[in-house]
Amino acid sequence: MHHNPDEHFLAHCQLLAQQAAAQGESPVGALVVCDGQVVATATEATRRQGTITAHAELLALQAAREHLGHPDLSGCTLYSTHEPCVMCAYAIRYHRVRRVVYSQPSAYLGGATALGPVLTTTQVPAHWAPPPEIQVVPPSENNS
Fold first, then answer.
1. Rounded distance, CA 5 to CA 51, Å?
2. Which residue among 26, 74, 91, 131 has its CA within the 20 to 30 Å range from the CA of 67?
3. Which SUPFAM superfamilies match (predicted)?
4. What is the pLDDT of residues 105-124, one digit of tens each?
């Protein structure tokens, strides 16, 4: 029995994460709650969909947007089993989500805990490549 709404919704996320794991995905589940009502649920689907952006949080935000009929999620809370990554964090900010509640902090590039420039940090999982070479080419003076 969950007396705290946050605990209740996080338990729901955990069930979603178990579904994701059973389908060969990373065990991540997310949901969006507006005015106490679950308006969207999602599981990690990057492998099933063959899509790099199919993180549970992004899928839940997209579903909430479609359910509500607008992109303003300022009255909503996003729940996730894991700390949203910086990609998901951008979408959370863009959609004006009021609260984010998660259970497991991220070791790397967490949307709440990452420090510094994401493109060049070396604080990434060991199997990742070194940072890309960065080249900045200013726009030319005359565009003729």
1. 32
2. 26
3. Cytidine deaminase-like (SSF53927)
4. 998 899 999 888 888 999 88
